[in-house]
Amino acid sequence: MTDREPLARIADALERIAPPPPRPADATAHPAYLWHGEALVAARAFTPLPLDLLQGLEAQKGALHDNLERLARGVAAQDALLWGARGTGKSALVKSIVGALQGEGADIALVEATGRLDTLPALFAAIAPVERAFAVFIDDLGFDGIGEARALRSLLEGGAEARPVNARLIVTANRRHLVPRDIAEQESAINPRDSIDDQLALADRFGLSLGFHAIDQNQYLAIVEGYASRYGLDFDPVEAIGWATRRGSRSGRVAWQYVVDLAGRSGKAL
């Protein structure tokens, strides 16, 4: 018996007990998908908030809706960067607009990509031949190294493995310049010109850039009122303000969390 035979048997046994790779979902059949790096998986439930519940975002709504509507029609559309403060509605807006377009009869699907950036070319290869539009959604983007930023820039700028015409990247981030300062400073010590180019050119590759900013107390209460009215809930503005104060911020996310708590205390489901 050779030394390789026991290792080969072990490898064969591990292969037999390993779960098979997921079967790709039908790319024409579902409103939303997940991409973890191997295959399209149908989202179990896609229930975005109604678009009219997102208060104080009229300019962002209009710009992103128009852009994704063009994508759905098969005409020129932009990759989009949604940047700004946490909890201000960036992710909710992306999902709500895709849902609204589907309600209007547009053939567009959301693909939430959670796999590594270097798996995106495989995703693009899978959806390129499909006669359908895809909003490839990368939520809360962050980088562990400068190489990942350059990989994304390559995808955006139309290289050999750029996204196909029926897909556009929709990215959310907490900062406009996507490369974290500490990584940029490390790179700057080696090559300052490349560091500046990486920070600025990456954001510049998005044809549509939408800023989301912290809201004031009146806007916060308007968001709470919109949610409460939709679900038939009575609320106390003082209590709603206290909820936000204890969490240290006013945002659409905090407003929704308050309404969830209010509904639970009222014995209602959302």
TrEMBL record:
The keyword ATP-binding is annotated on this UniProt entry: yes
Entry keyword Ribosomal protein: no
Keyword annotations from UniProtKB, A to Z: ATP-binding, Nucleotide-binding
Gene Ontology MF annotations: ATP binding
Coiled coil: none
InterPro entries, A to Z: DUF815 (IPR008533), P-loop_NTPase (IPR027417)
Protein name: ATP-binding protein
Organism of this sequence: Stakelama marina
Source lineage: Bacteria, Pseudomonadati, Pseudomonadota, Alphaproteobacteria, Sphingomonadales
